[in-house]
Amino acid sequence: MDLGPLNICEEMTILHGGFLLAEQLFHPKALAELTKSDWEHVGRPIVEALREISSAAAHSQPFAWKKKALIIIWAKVLQPHPVTPSDTETRWQEDLFFSVGNMIPTINHTILFELLKSLEASGLFIQLLMALPTTICHAELERFLEHVTVDTSSEDVAFFLDVWWEMMKTTPRRCLQPCIWTNWPR
């Protein structure tokens, strides 16, 4: 998947600002502790930042910056925590997302999934999910299912069904078969 340059630029500054505002709204807690019920109060600046990026970039790259931003956010969620000094030493040399990822505070899967739902980005979610290695794909699908089944709202159900539809349209289904039915709560 060719991402193009991931320079720190105006779009990343807007995204950074959205996360800083969300962090202020959630203070004294860290965004990594955010739950679904907190999203309505805290998520708005992040969603607005992504919408601003998408509309500003619409004349040249209508979909590209939303995709890049979600890739950066997902990469941030997948980072191991806590980060040790030796991790940092290795990451700045080897990690494509090091500089842009460090502009975003430590976050959790709730932020990722609620952001995808708020942006109605089920197709993009599946596209990015399919780019992950199979074991990570399975783990992320399990996390998504766990997320949907906690404090389930009608919006969660609608988003789940949109994601499900996108999965069924997507080929190859390498990631989906072993995970979906075996891990769905009964």
TrEMBL record:
Q: Which domain of life is it from?
A: Eukaryota
Q: Which InterPro entries does the protein's record reference?
A: GEMIN4
Q: Which residues cross the membrane?
A: none
Q: Which GO terms describe its cellular component?
A: SMN complex
Q: Span of the secretion signal? A: none
Q: What's one GO BP annotation on this UniProt entry?
A: spliceosomal snRNP assembly
Name of the protein described by the UniProt record: Gem nuclear organelle associated protein 4
Q: Which organism is it from?
A: Pan paniscus (Pygmy chimpanzee)
The protein's gene is named GEMIN4
